[in-house]
Amino acid sequence: MLTATTLEQTREEMHEILRGIVPEVEIDYKAEIAFEINKLKKEKNAIILGHNYMEPALFHSIPDHVGDSLGLSRIAAKADADIIIFCGVEFMAETAKILNPTKTVLLPAAKAGCSLAASITAQDVRNLKAKFPGVPVVTYINTYADVKAETDICCTSGNAAAVINSLDSDSVIFLPDEYLARNVAEQTGKNIIVPTTNGANVTFDTSNPDFNMIGWHGKCEVHDKFSVEDIQNIRLQFPDVAVVSHPECSPEVVQASDFAGSTKEMINYVKDVDAERYLLLTECSMGDNIAAAIPEKDMLRLCSVRCPHMNQITMEETLDALRYNQYEIHIDEDIRQRAAQSVERMIAIG
To answer: Could you list the residue range(s) of the whole structural domain that residue 21 is in?
Structure first.
């Protein structure tokens, strides 16, 4: 968060942080918007939460708090501001409303979806519970409220293994990210099965009786693009590079990386790693944000994958959200209460 109290100070601070990351003419333009936002949020008693995938000019200027899904969920639950603006995608803003229902929660975009969240419905979860009765359901935070409402406990990429290990059950349904499920299955010693699909038909091969994790077929459209070949090519050019991936990448990519973890864990790894340069296999804006925050480390700027949904969140839309209280999040109260139980159980684990 900026400490500036004038427009000129705002420009100076943003140039200091973003020099070499964002073109100077863009910094000047965005500084004017940032100054208006930071002034208006004080007048309206608003708080802005910024996910690690926000574009750099926004990430380093207007949020009161930045972080990953778990960290921002904790902050949203305790926020006492009248208005919470969530600079992230829709399921994140929904989570803020689930945890703090009396507050006005705004998403600064008409629609900022998520390929993972769109990959599963509440009815899909009910069907799975009927097919595998008595098996607890763990759902990734990257889902919509009605799916969370059908869930026993939520998780993030950073605490998924801990959540699974906390259950009093050898078997688990883990939704909806197939790659995260496979990576967590490896961590926790589970034998996983995932469905095959033919149109609307979803079928599981249960001929092997040793399975104890049931996955789904959702994938992040960003992390699905990274390949082992990408890593091999980079290592040929830069043998000393530290390759850091997100566990939404395929198991093959994760295994070929030096480290895999949540966005927060990736940031900490980059800070601490004893390597001259690093490569992030995740959403590109996060790479720029880390490069701005840790300028002494050399990031290989080879990423070309920007989340089209996170990209819907702009400083212009954030200013309009504040001005007009637009794109407010509403959740049916029955769904909200049931979803809150699964999210609060996750937060209790940490």
So the answer is: 7-113+310-324
